[in-house]
Amino acid sequence: MGIIEQKVKNPGIIKASIFALIPFIFLLCAGEAFCRIKLYFQTKDSKYLTSPFFLKGDVKENSEYRFKINNFYGQERSVLYFKLVPGEYMPDSRFGYGHYTVNSLGFRGKEFKPYNKDEATIRIFCIGESSTFGAESPDNKTWPAQLESYLSEGSGKKFEVINSGFPSYYSSNYLNLIKSELLSFKPDMFILYSGVNELYKINQDSSINKTLENIHRSLYYRWSLLYTLLNEKFSILTQKQAIPVNLHNWKRAKKEYLCDIEEIIELCKNRQIRIIVVRQLLYTDENLFKGDNLTFEKIIEIQADKHKDSFGNSYANNLEIFHHNELMILLQDLSLKEGIRFLDYRKDFYSFIKEDKMIFFDSVHLTSEGNSLLAKLISQDIKAHLEKTK
How far out from the chain centre does Cα 111 lie? Predict the structure, then answer.
């Protein structure tokens, strides 16, 4: 009899729970509507009223990348990396050029013969993230493309520089790319330029974590302005900045990055492939640009309210600067320990920042002029080193 009574009562409990949720759902809807209307009146942009519908359309029409996913399986973890589908793509309209090219092998730029190289040619692969891929510039204005031009000027040697940077790559991706493809492409040199993506790396240890992360991304980037604003308000309280930096498993992400770079260095040593590590540039107020070993509080004090340059381009946020500096110092220490050349061009870029030249599009991506400066500096170093080793 007790079991029958319990079964009869259960529907009532469910109904009561549903009715209890109604005020909560109403408050969420009201908060969402308030955020949208407030932003609309502040910006006069009707997209704030129609999101996510306009956003879904924009993503579909203006998608900057298409990914070709290659999956391989190693002993400890999936050997995963992706490459772009060959073809021509329309860049973001703010970059001001017509299209960029992905060759038949899935790399940015012109074609090359992977297994057939002139022995007199020095083949260089530039390894990294979107700051190497360079969607902000046409094919011939990325820093790898300009590096080939600078190296070929008056050197008497043949150089072939291949852009092996990919948007959203982590160190594990380009380590796997190197092991699965690049080592068989007769490389003479690797140039590594990376790091900032590790600050946003998501380590998903379970299907629950993966599901929660997918829900977060959908709400934050697409569905809810209320959720986005609450996240950013909380980030201001905890991280002193509006844009949240993912610090979940930061220690693990940092360790994995250094282990991956160490493995790349070891692979190169075993195959007599030269490797150069270039410190990735992060755009900050000029008073922070050359700073190392600065506390988080000191960075906040120096940068204060200076979040953009005179062109309206954003500086890196405070926590991003702090952890990127930490990672680059560890990378430099690893390079010195392994006897690898570590190149730091912050002093060279500093004068351009002081002259108020537009060399950054945002906190990490260079303009074509910035790419030119980076390529020129690297080429000078390579030429000087080749002269010494004759």
Answer: 25
Per-domain boundaries in the chain = 2-50, 58-201+246-388, 207-239
Spatial separation of the C-alpha atoms in residues 48 and 217, rounded to whole Å? 18
Chain centroid to Cα 124, Å, comes to 22
Q: Which of 61, 209, 181 is nearest to 112 (CA)?
A: 181
Q: What does the mean pLDDT of the chain come to?
A: 82
**Per-residue exposure over 55-84, b if at least 16 CB sit within 10 Å of its own CB, e if not:** eeeeeeeeeeeeeeeeeeeeeeeebbbbbb
Give the pLDDT band (50/70/90) at residue 38: confident
**Residue 20 pLDDT class (50, 70, 90 cuts):** confident
Place of tokens 């510039």: 137
Neighbouring CB atoms inside 10 A of 220's CB total: 16
Is 90 exceeded by the pLDDT of residue 85?
no
Cα–Cα distance for residue pair 324/320, rounded to 1 Å: 6
Pairwise CA distance, residues 373 & 345, whole Å: 10
Least confident of 68-77, 141-150, 214-223, 352-361: 68-77
| Rounded distance between C-alpha atoms, residue 53 and residue 35, angstroms | 16
Q: Which residues contact 332 (CB under 8 A, 6 or more apart)?
A: 277, 279, 342, 344
Name the band, by pLDDT with cuts 50, 70 and 90, for residue 79: low
Answer CATH for 58-201+246-388 from 3.10.129.10, 3.40.50.1110, 3.40.50.1370, 3.40.50.300: 3.40.50.1110
